[in-house]
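Second opinion, please. Pick holes in both lines of this record:
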Amino acid sequence: MAFLVIASCTKLEDLNKDTKNPTAVPGVTLFSNAQKNIADQIASTNVNLNVFKLFAQYWTETTYTDEANYDIINRTIADNAWMVWYRDVLMDLQEARLTIESTAYATTEEEMAAANQLLIADILECFVYERMVTLWGDIPYTQALDIENINPAYDDAFTIYNDLLVRLNADIAGLSPNAGYGSYGVADVIYGGDVDKWVMFANSLKLKMGITLAKSNATLARTTIESAIAGGVFTSNADNAEVEFLDAPPNTNPLYVDLTLSGRQDFIGT
């Protein structure tokens, strides 16, 4: 009877484990999830999340035209986008780094691949912060992502921009594309772990940031642009950082979900 009680308890404990919502996952998986969340947010035409293509007039609305007319006073679009970038992207990248850093590796090759993983995660984080500064200006940066601090300080946008450039330069210098150590492999749903392409991505981001700085700090803009070009930037659409969506839900392109599966016909090219 004692044996049966012990066996039953063990089985009940197993039933209490939610295998579909694990409490611990590999850092590379968190990195993949961050990439997917970035792609979803940028691609989506859901007016509760992303109205910026409407603002830029890439497309427009024919029925409910509030957002196309820049009228979002009754919506919480900014709050929703803010939540996606901080909670669903930056927190995933932070947890990915923490997990990768705390993992014990058996070989030098694995250690070097992990070093590349950390630098690539930082490059992607710089990309996210650059988008957020462009959207909002001053944002929480140095005190962001601390769950114990519910009122983080807002950092000056230009100060953040400068720091992002410092980080990108360090990331580019630290990556080892020619050593053959690799990085995320197939867990990288943008470049398949290709370190050379991440160096090109980082330089292209620097180029974009340098152009943005042209009117506020011409000297920094020039050095940033020249450095980026010397390091190698995108030269064709073949270099683009793209997530290839699948052909079945839930991982189809958000545009397909929003414009086709929904049956809506009220978004058109401008």
